[in-house]
Amino acid sequence: xSTDRTKISWNGWGWTAHKDEVAGNEAAWSWLxxxxxxxxxxxxxxxxxxxxxxxxSRLNPSERAHFAQVLGEDxxxxxxxxxxxxxxxxxxxxxxxxxxxxxxxxxxxxxxxxGTDEVLSTLSFASDNGIAVVPFGGGTSVVGSxxxxxxxxxxxxxxxxxxxxxxxxxxxxxxxxxxxxxxxGPALDKALRAQNVVLGHYPQxxxxxxxxxxxxxxxxxxxxxxxxxxxxxxVSAKLATPRGLLTTEDFPASSAGPRITDLVLGSExxxxxxxxxxxxxxxxxxxxxxxxxxxxDFTSGAAAIRLxxxxxxxxxxLRLSDAEETRFYRAYGAAGKKKGFGSRLADAYLxxxxxxxxxxxxxxxFEGDPVSVERSHKRFxxxxxxxxxxxxxxxxxxxxxxxxxxxxxxxxxxxxxxxGVDTLETATSWSKINALxxxxxxxxxxxxxxxxxxPGARGIVACHISHSYPDGASLYFTYIFPRALDGDVAQWLxxxxxxxxAIVAHGGTISHHHGVGExxxxxxxxxKGTLGVDVLRAIxxxxxxxxxxxxxxxxxx
Amino acid sequence: xSTDRTKISWNGWGWTAHKDEVAGNEAAWSWLxxxxxxxxxxxxxxxxxxxxxxxxSRLNPSERAHFAQVLGEDxxxxxxxxxxxxxxxxxxxxxxxxxxxxxxxxxxxxxxxxGTDEVLSTLSFASDNGIAVVPFGGGTSVVGSxxxxxxxxxxxxxxxxxxxxxxxxxxxxxxxxxxxxxxxGPALDKALRAQNVVLGHYPQxxxxxxxxxxxxxxxxxxxxxxxxxxxxxxVSAKLATPRGLLTTEDFPASSAGPRITDLVLGSExxxxxxxxxxxxxxxxxxxxxxxxxxxxDFTSGAAAIRLxxxxxxxxxxLRLSDAEETRFYRAYGAAGKKKGFGSRLADAYLxxxxxxxxxxxxxxxFEGDPVSVERSHKRFxxxxxxxxxxxxxxxxxxxxxxxxxxxxxxxxxxxxxxxGVDTLETATSWSKINALxxxxxxxxxxxxxxxxxxPGARGIVACHISHSYPDGASLYFTYIFPRALDGDVAQWLxxxxxxxxAIVAHGGTISHHHGVGExxxxxxxxxKGTLGVDVLRAIxxxxxxxxxxxxxxxxxx
Lengths: 557, 557
Known about the structure:
Chain A is α+β, with helices and mostly antiparallel strands and 557 residues long. Chain A has 3 domains: 5-163, Uridine Diphospho-n-acetylenolpyruvylglucosamine Reductase, domain 2, CATH 3.30.43; 167-283, Uridine Diphospho-n-acetylenolpyruvylglucosamine Reductase, domain 3 (2-Layer Sandwich), CATH 3.30.465.10; 287-404, Alpha-Beta Plaits (2-Layer Sandwich), CATH 3.30.70.3450. Helices cover 36% and strands 20% of the residues of chain A. Chain A has 19 helices and 18 strands. The first copy, chain A, has helices spanning 26-35, 61-71, 80-85, 92-99, 116-129, 185-193, 211-216, 224-227, 230-233, 261-264, 298-310, 323-334, 341-352, 370-386, 394-402, 411-415, 433-451, 488-505, 524-543; strands at residues 76-77, 109-111, 131-136, 155-160, 167-171, 176-180, 197-198, 234-241, 244-247, 273-280, 282-283, 287-295, 317-321, 360-368, 390-393, 419-429, 460-469, 472-482. Chain A is globular, with a radius of gyration of 23 Å. The two termini of chain A are 35 Å apart. Chains A and B meet through β9, α10, β16, β18 and α19 of A and β9, α10, β16, β18 and α19 of B.
C-alpha cells in the first residue's frame, strides 16, 4: 500500500497532521459567526477513538479462520482502528456519526486481498455463508457508499482493496494502462509520469482515493474537460462477482450490443468488486496554465463557458464561482488581516470597472503543449472579454491550483465550532441551469433558516460551476450553517431532502460526480424510472444472486 | 413517411431506379472475371416477387382485428410486397435468400404505429398473446437484425417505425434535438439543417436508415471522428417495452449509477422499441474539405492516422485503403477505358516517386469553420508528409464524397453475374491491428479459395481503416468471390465463420458498427463473456419477461 493509513484521520478528512492556516485564525471565526447570525461559536470537539466501544465481531470463529486461511492471518483485521476506519465514508453526515462516537456501522472484519483470485474466493464464500461484503478503496465517499451495513445479513466485512495496487502495464502504442484497482491516486500518477504519461483524473479526493473507487462511483476529476470522466477514460475492467470473474470488452469501439464496461461505471460495489482496470492515458502535458477572470455576474460567466465548450475549445477546466462564493472566499481569507493599500486599490479599481457585489470569479485551466495552451488561453481570453470579464491574473490560478485538494479539510475546524458544512452537486442542461441554480440556492437558504438552532441565524450558500459539457454543466453547492446540536443528523437530512427534491423537480441529476450510496438512494426511482431501477436490480441479480454485495447502496430495496 | 418505400428494392439495395455505371460495362466484368480466376461470369438473376408464394399469415382474425382497432385498418398491412419487404435486412446473406425467393421469414403482418402509446399498446398485447415483435426502422441491417423470426412463438409482426418521424424540438441553448425514432436520415438532416444545425451521422446506409436504427445497433457514421458514434451523440431515449415506457436519463453527465441510456445503445430491439431520442447537435459546418493522399503502404498510413488521432487533431474522417483496395478501385474504374496520356503520366510519376504495388490511398476529411478546417488540413498534411505520403488532391476526395453512399449498390450487379460480395468489420487496439489485419485477410483469401466452385478461382479481399480512435481503429473488409451456386448460403457461412473466428482470436470485436443480429450471435459469449451475456439476458428479462421482442437476435438462446 502506497499510502500510510495510520496517518489518515479515521473521523475527519485526510492527513491527521494537516493544519489549515484558517483553523487558528480567531478573527476569521468571529467574522464567520457574524455572517451566520450567531453571537459566538461553540466548542464541539469530536470523541476520541479510545473512548468509543465497539460491538463484538459477528463473524463466527470458523468464518474468520476460513478468511485467514485464504488471505493470511495478517490480512484479516478486526482491531479497533481498522474497524473504525472502515465504518463509514467521509461525508458531513458520516463525520456527524463518527465524531459522536457512533460506530454502529463498524464492519465485523476488514479483509485485504492481494489478487483477483483472493477476491473471487472471498466473494464466493461470503455469498455461500450470508456475509455482506462492502468493497473499500480509499473510503472517501461523501454519499455513504462504504457504510459497513450488513443489510438483512448476519455480518459484514469490509473488503479493502489497497493491497492491490500494482501498475500491470503501459501500452504506449495504444495509449492505455492497466493497473490493479486499489492503487491510490498519487501512486498511480507517479508510476505513469515516470513513463511520461498521465491518466489526468484529479478529483478533490485525489490523494486519498483509488482507481477502483473512481470507476465504481463514475467520478469526474477537476480537469475532466481535458482528460474526461471515468466513463470517458475507462477502457475495460475486471469485475469479481460471487458468480465468478467478468472481464469486460476492451475494444476501442464496438457495436456488439450494449457495452458491459458501461455497467461497471457507477456500480458502487453492488454488482461486483473492480479488481483491475485498463484506462486511456495521454502524454503528460508539457505545460499548464491556471488563470483567473472576473465576470460581472454568474450568468455572463456561464454564458462564456457555454460558448467555449460548444465550440470545443480545448480547456482543462473552467470553474466559475457565483457571487456568494466569490465574496466568501475573498472575505474569509482576508478576515483579520489589516486592509493594505494594495487591497484598497484593488477594491477601488473593481468598483471603477463596475464589478459590484454580483461579480463572479473564474479559474480557467489549460494543459498540453505550449502552442495549444497559448492558443486556447488566447481564444478563451477573447470569449471572456466578449462577455465583459476582466483578467485577474495567473496568481489567482496558481493559488487555486496549490489548494485544489484542500477544501475538505475546512470541515473539521468548522465542526469543532458548532458549525455544519456540506456540499452537494448536480448537473443539468444549459437551458435549465438558471432555474435550477436559483431554486436550489433558495431552498438551501430557506431550509437552513428553518433548521438553525436560534432565530435570526442563517446559512452561507455558495455555488460554482465545476464541470461543463456542450449540453450543460454541473453546479456544486457548498453550504455552511449553525448546527442544531441536539438533532444534527435530522437537520442534515432535512436540508439534504429539500435540496435534492428541488434538484429533481428542476431537471437535475441527483449526482454529477459523488455517486448514489445510501444518501441518494431515496431518489433513484425518480432518477432512473421504475423500469430503470428494475434493470439495475436484474443486473445485480445476475451477478450477486444472494445479495451480499454492498447492501443498501445504489439499488432501492 | 418521408421516404417512398415503393421505390426501394425489396430484395436489393436502395432505390430500384439507381443504375450504377459499372453495371453495364462489360469490359469491367471481363476484367473482374480474370481477377477472380474465372473464364467467364454466369447470369444469375433474382426471382421476381410475383413468382414467390408466401405462407398464410399466422395471426388469427381476432388478433388482427385488435391491431386494426388500435392502429387503424390502414396501418395493419399483410400484402405481398409489405411482407416481403419486411422479411429480412439487406446483408449479402439476406439477399441470397431474398433473390432465391425464400420468404420463409416473412412477418405475418406489418404494423405502422403513429405514437409511443400505440407502440406500448401493441407490445403489451403481443406479450400477453405470445406474438413476436420485430422492430423495423429502415430495414438496412447487414447482420440479420430484422429477420422476421417468431422464435418459439406462434406468429411474428414487423413493427415498422417509419410512421413516427416527427422532429419534436430543437434546443439551441443546449444544442440537442428530439425526434421520433422512425425518421429517415435525409428527413432528419434536412429538418436540422433548416435550423443551421446537424447531427452529423452519415453511415453508408444514411439514405435508407433511421434514427432509431442507428441507436439500436450502436452505429457509427463515416464522419464519426467529428460527430461521434451513436454512443457519443445519444443523450436520452424513450424505450417502449412490454412492461411500459422507460425514459432514460437526459443529463449532460451523472454519477448516479450506471447510465440506462447506455443500455438502449446496441439493444437491437431485444429490450424494447426506441420511439423517441434526444441527440447532441452541432452547428452545421461552414465548410468541408475531402482530399486524397497516397502512402507507400498501409502500415505507414495507419501510423499517420494514429499520430493524428492521438494528438486529437480535429478531423472528420481518415479513411485508408490497403494496397488491394487501392489497386482494385483504380483498376475497376479504369477497366474498359483506353489509357490516356494523363493516366500514363500519372503511372510514370508514381513509379518515379517509388509508389509501388503496396501504395495505399487515403481520403482525409475536415469539416467546420474555415480557419479550423485549414489549420487541421495543414497539420494533417505535415503528418502525412512525415510518413512519406504524397497529396493526390481534392478531386479524389470529391469523388469519394459524391459516391459515399453508393458502395452497396455494387452488390446487385455482381450477384446477377454469379458473384458473391460481402463485407465485415471489426476494431481493435493499435498494438494488435497489424496482426489482426494479416490474419483476417489471409483467412478470407484461404476460405474463399477453399469454397469457390472451381479450382484456380480466388477472391479479391480488400480492406480499409474506416474509423479511428486514440487507442485503436476499425478495419473494414470487402471481399468478392465466385459464388458456389449449389450452396451459396453454406459458402457464405463458411467464410463468415472462419473470418470471425480469426477476428476473435486476434482481439477484435465481432462488430465495430454493423451490430450483432443473427449473424454474430454465435460469438456473443466470446465477445461479452458468460457473465456478460447473463447480464444482457437479465436486462431483457426485466423489460420483456415473455421474450416477444426480436427473438434470436443479440442474446444467445
